Amino acid sequence: MIDPAVGHWSHRIPHSFGLVADTLTTPAVSGRAKQIAAENDLNGSLFDTQANRRAFLVAGSQGRLAGWTKASDDRVIAISIVLAGGENTVAIVAPSLIRQEIDPKIPTGFVLIAKDIAPSEWRGGKVSVQLATHGLVEYAIADLVLGRVAVRKIDNVVVGLGVDVLATPSTSEPWVWRLQACWERLFYVTLRWAHWGLGLFLLTLGYRVWSRRGSDNQIAIIFFFAGMILLRLCFFAVLDATSWPGNQPRYLYPIMPLHVSLITLVDAHLVRIAMGGARSLFHFLAKWKMKRAKTLDESIARTL
Can you say whether the dihedral through the CA atoms of 246, 252, 258, 259 is positive or negative? Predict the structure, then answer.
């Protein structure tokens, strides 16, 4: 619903219009920031498949540690991953999985996922095991070995940590992702430069109409496309200034094909104008040269 007090929001219209229009030439996420994988890998993959999201093209920077932990004469209440310095806990869980081979009565298994961290931060971090009565036991991630059990002793309590999965965060990007990102950058850069044609078109429009050159139908189609695009931009600019963010790509999907078509038509129109101007200049120079040669011949004849 639009606020009837126009004075409250009318001054925001130019800024909102710029934000909405910029959506046509700017990626939705600047630099296409890396997407973080879902907590639940199964549900996350299912959602990506059903929603047709291309998460498989994006390399998530996350570390993963799965295994089990058990303490003699005490109870483990939490396992966490702490980065270097001991102040930044990036993941914490309680044992929730029954491991029959370890203890069939109490949960000892766990899965830890640390999101959006650098490989160096992961390697310098620690795994902290919180005991119910005997405090905290720490294991350096760099010392953990896949398939082995790390043992620590605090007072008379022995704490074991078995490692089944140890995945270091990776920031590598698949070649398909790099190819797609390269094409996206090329497309948007080309589109921004092509917008200069709109300004030149406005400067030459009066001349085209006045000289009656070219097709009036083509100019009508250009104005029709431009009107449809401008109408939608203005509509969502008003919504952005009054109600909710209007600079979302999904709002402009219907006019994006029209936008590209408009740029193509305008630039093709300008190319034809330039070629026509070049031909006219060539004819003018040819006539001027012939006239000058004729004048020179007449001057020589009078001299003789």
Answer: positive
Question: Domain residue spans in the chain?
Answer: 6-24+195-295, 61-167
Please give the Cα distance from 151 to 68 (Å, whole number): 12
Rounded Cα distance, 85 and 70, in Å: 26
* Residue entry with tokens 């095991």: 129
To 5 degrees, how large is the angle CA 251–CA 22–CA 20?
A: 40
pTM of the model: 0.45
- The residues near 246 (Cβ < 8 Å, ≥ 6 apart) are 16, 19, 20, 236, 237, 238, 239, 240
- Mean local confidence (pLDDT), 195-224: 65
Query: What φ, ψ does residue 252 adopt, rounded to 5°?
Result: -105, 5
Q: pLDDT digits over 53-72, tens only?
A: 544 444 456 788 999 999 98
| 73-78: average pLDDT | 91
Q: What is the pLDDT of residue 85?
A: 63
CATH topology of domain 61-167: Immunoglobulin-like (2.60.40)
HSE-up of residue 14 (Cα within 13 Å, Cβ side): 1
